[in-house]
Amino acid sequence: MPGLLTSQNLTEMRYLVVGWSNLTVSRVTTLIEHGSSSVVVAGVNGLTEAEAERATAAGASQVLDRPFTVDDLTTLGREEVDKVVDGVFVTLPKARFIKEIEQIYNTCRRLRVPVNVADAPEYCTFTLLSSYAHGDFQLGVTTNGKGCRLASRIKREVVKSLPTNIDEICERVGSLRQRIYQEDLSEVLETAVGQEDDDAGQSREFNTLVLEHEETLEQRKKQRLRWLSQVVEYYPLSRLGSISVEELSREYKQTIKNENATVTSLPEAAPRGRIALVGSGPGNAGLLTAAALQAITSADVVLADKLVPEEVLALIPRRTPVRIAKKFPGNAERAQEELLQLGLEGLEAGEYVVRLKQGDPYIFGRGAEEFNYFRSKGYTPEVVPGITSALSAPLVAKIPVTHREVADQVLICTGTGRRGALPTIPEWVESRTCVFLMALHRIGNVVEALANKGWDLSVPCCVIERASCPDQRIIRTRLRDVAEALEAAGSRPPGLLVTGYACEVIEKLGSEKWRIEEGLGN
Ligand code: SAH
C-alpha cells in the first residue's frame, strides 16, 4: 500500500542515528539541513574517535562514547516529551545486526517513534523520498520501495521540465497571497486606478472598485482571491515568475472593468521578453551547438560580438535584425553599454533577444556581467554554453592539451590585465599546458614577463589564429622566438598562444625557428 506523503517539520526535534556507515553522515546532514536542532549518533559497539569526529563535523550535537542500548530511545530525547527521542534512523547492515534492528523497531513502534532502517523497508515506519529543493519549492519522488535509483532518475526527469526559477514563482505567488490577505493589494489597486479625488474620510481599504459596485470589503477580498487562484491556474509558469504586483493589479482592474465585476475570464497575457546568452564556438559554423543554432534561428533580434565570424552570422534568418558590437580599442565600454541597452529595449518590447558571444560566454566573455545586468532588470537570461577557443584552437593545431606523462594540467589565462596592464603571470610548471587569450598584440611583453617569472624559454609553443575558420593559421615555434615569428608573419586576429610540451606530442619542430601552416586541414 503506498504511504501517505507528508512534509515534516523537524524544528526542535531530537533525532537518534544508530550505526556507522557512509549513510550515517548523510542522515545527520539531512536532519540538520531540515532544521532538526539536535542529532545524537551512537554505534552498537561504540564509535571510534575518527567516526565520532566525522559525525560531529557533519553537525551531530552529541556522539555517544559508549555502545548503544535500547534504553537510549527513552533517555536521550527532549525533556518536554519525557526524553523519548523524536525519531530514529538506523544505518546498521541488516544481515549482521538483525537482532538489534528488531529490538529498535519494536520499541519504536510501541513508543510511536518514527523509525527508518536503511535498506530494510519491513523495519521502517517511514521512508525518505528522492527529493529536490529550490527555495521554498520541494519535490519528492517515491516508487514505494521499487528502487531508489529509479525514483532519483524520475525526479531528475521531472525537475528538467520545471522552469529554472520555480523558487521565484513560489515566492511571487506567496507574497501576492500574503498581500491580498493583508489588504495591501487594495492600496496598490487604488494607486493603479489613479483615483485623484479621494474622499479624505475614506478608510484605506475603501477603494474605487468597492464604491463602484457597492460590495463589502469581505466580498471584494474573496473575489480577489478567486481571481488570484485563476491566475495561478491558467498563467504560464514563466509569467508567474516574472510578473510584478503592480502589473497584476493593473490586469485585475482591467478584468473587473471588462467583466463588470464578475471574474470569469483572464486577460490575454502580454508577451514578455526573454533573453539567452549564447556561445557561438570558435568560428566554424559546424562547431555551434544544436541549442545555439536553435536560439539564433528563433530569435527576434541577435546582438553579436564583433568576433563572431561571417559564417555563423550567415545562419541567422534574413528577417532577423542583427546588431554587432563595435568594440574597437578605446570604446569597448561604450560598445558594451550600447549592446546592453539594445538588449533591454528588445526585452521591454517583448522580444526574444539572443546575445551571441564568441566561444563560451563565461570564458573571458563578460558573460556573467551581462547575466547580472539583465537579471537586475528583471530578465534572467538563459545561458547556452559554447565551445571555447581556448580548448578547441589547440585541438585544431594538433595539440592535446593534456597528455599522459607530458601535460597533467591545462591553464586558461589572459595576456591582458585590467585597463591593459599585464595580468597575473602564472608560475612555470613543466607539466602544464598554458593557453593565453588576448595576448598576441603584446606578445613581447608577455614573453618578457614569463622569463622574469623563471619560465624556460626553450619550451615549445604555438600561435593559433582564426582557429577553425578557412583562413586559420598556425605558427609552431619556441617561446624565445615567438615574438619574432609573429612579427615576421603579421597578425591575423583573433589568435591565441599555447605553451608547453603538449605542443610537440603530435607535431615536432625540426631545426627551423618556426613553421607556419596555413588554412584548415593541414
Ligand atoms: N569567450 C571566448 C573568448 C573571448 S576573449 C571563447 O571562449 O573563445 C577573445 C580572445 O579569444 C581572443 O583575443 C583570442 O585570444 C581568443 N579567440 C577567440 N576566437 C578565436 C579563434 N577562432 N582562434 C583563436 N583564438 C580565438
UniProtKB/TrEMBL annotation:
Gene Ontology terms, MF aspect: oxidoreductase activity; uroporphyrin-III C-methyltransferase activity
Reactions listed under catalytic activity: uroporphyrinogen III + 2 S-adenosyl-L-methionine = precorrin-2 + 2 S-adenosyl-L-homocysteine + H(+)
Domain annotation Siroheme synthase central: ranges: 135-160
Any one biological process term the GO annotation gives: siroheme biosynthetic process
Pfam families recorded: NAD_binding_7 (PF13241), Sirohm_synth_M (PF14824), TP_methylase (PF00590)
UniProt KW Oxidoreductase keyword: yes
CDD domains: SUMT
PROSITE patterns the record matches: SUMT_2
InterPro entries xrefs: 4pyrrol_Mease, 4pyrrol_Methylase_sf, 4pyrrole_Mease_sub1, 4pyrrole_Mease_sub2, CobA/CysG_C, Met1_fungi, Siro_Cobalamin_biosynth, Sirohaem_synthase_central
SUPFAM superfamilies, alphabetized: Siroheme synthase middle domains-like (SSF75615), Tetrapyrrole methylase (SSF53790)
Protein's job: Siroheme synthase involved in methionine biosynthesis.
Protein known as: Similar to Saccharomyces cerevisiae YKR069W MET1 S-adenosyl-L-methionine uroporphyrinogen III transmethylase
